[in-house]
From TrEMBL:
Organism encoding this protein: Micromonospora antibiotica
Database matches in CDD domains: CE4_NodB_like_6s_7s
SUPFAM superfamilies: Glycoside hydrolase/deacetylase (SSF88713)
Keywords: Membrane, Transmembrane, Transmembrane helix
Start and end residues of each NodB homology domain: 84-265
Keyword Plastid: no
Name by which UniProt lists this protein: Polysaccharide deacetylase family protein
Membrane-spanning segments: 21-39
Keyword Transmembrane found: yes
PROSITE patterns: NODB (PS51677), TAT (PS51318)
Domain of life: Bacteria
Length: 281
């Protein structure tokens, strides 16, 4: 309560002079300011201990000159086109039983595809793909299928570089595309991809094997119905047993899509025939 003479009654009924009130206000304001500064400095200090620069969250690696390849990066889910084009992609191989079956089916129908290969499996099973990829395209799917989005930029680059070299040696051509495991993108993934002059390729339609147990024909009909022009279709030539539903239905899928007027192309062929933006790679 304010009384005559500029005095203020305090909580206990005592009187505070104007000078005391103003002094208290100044101390309060100063405390707020110091608190804000302290919080800001505390956050700054805490950030210095986080793996930001060059870490999983960061697409930069500090304040020195960066090696960034062509300087730009394209990330693709789908191709903008009205042409009935579809890019069939296979992840996680090569593996015995799976990959030869897929390659045999594609050869029988003269269908090209893009294989996102795991480097360690390429090193172990190079004979499965050597000499069999003439009509196909290869991409880099990491060395051991770890979640690259959890790794620092330098670790991601080392992982992809190791896989890159193994794929180039076995396939006879260096990959120009990468697809991170699980489709997880982190700053380190982006930075490593631009260093290697890759395009990052995800997908706009995925096989749904779990919805069609023991029904390859039903699964094929579902995929055929869902494809639209410019679709990048995710399949696998490795994995749990239920994925064999898609492999066993691959003949019907190809036949069904061709009946709808679709032409199969590799991812790079698809992107070269569309008008979407391109950077790097």
């Amino acid at each position: 309560m304010v009384r005559d003479g500029g005095e203020t009654t305090g909580p206990g009924g005592g009187r505070w002079g104007r000078r005391r009130v103003l002094g208290g206000g100044a101390l309060l304001a100063g405390g707020i300011t110091l608190g804000a500064v302290g919080m800001s400095q505390g956050a700054s200090l805490a950030d210095r201990h986080l793996p930001l620069s060059g870490g999983p969250a960061s697409a930069t690696v500090g304040n020195r000159r960066q090696d960034v390849g062509a300087g730009g990066l394209q990330v693709v889910w789908h191709a903008p086109t009205t042409e009935r084009l579809v890019a069939l992609t296979f992840d996680d191989g090569p593996l015995p039983r799976w990959t030869p079956t897929v390659l045999d089916t594609l050869e029988r129908h003269a269908v090209p595809a893009t294989f996102f290969l795991v480097g360690a499996r390429v090193r172990r099973h190079a004979d499965l793909i050597r000499g069999r990829l003439a009509r196909h395209e290869v991409g880099n799917h990491s060395w051991r299928h770890r979640d690259l989005a959890r790794l620092a930029a330098a670790e991601v680059h080392d992982d992809l570089r190791r896989s890159h070299d193994a794929i180039a040696e076995a396939a006879g051509v260096a990959p120009r595309l990468t697809r991170p495991p699980y489709g997880h993108l982190g700053g380190g993934v982006l930075h490593a991809a631009v260093r290697l002059d890759y395009r990052v390729v995800l997908w706009s339609l995925q096989m749904v094997e779990g919805e069609f147990p023991d029904d390859p024909a039903g699964h094929a009909r579902r995929i055929v119905a869902d494809v639209v022009p410019g679709t990048i279709l995710l399949a696998h030539d490795a994995g749990p047993e239920n994925r064999q539903v898609a492999v066993r239905g691959l003949d019907a899928m190809i036949t069904g899509l061709r009946a709808r007027g679709y032409t199969f192309v590799t991812v790079s062929q698809l992107l070269s025939r569309t008008s979407g933006p391109r950077a790097g790679g």
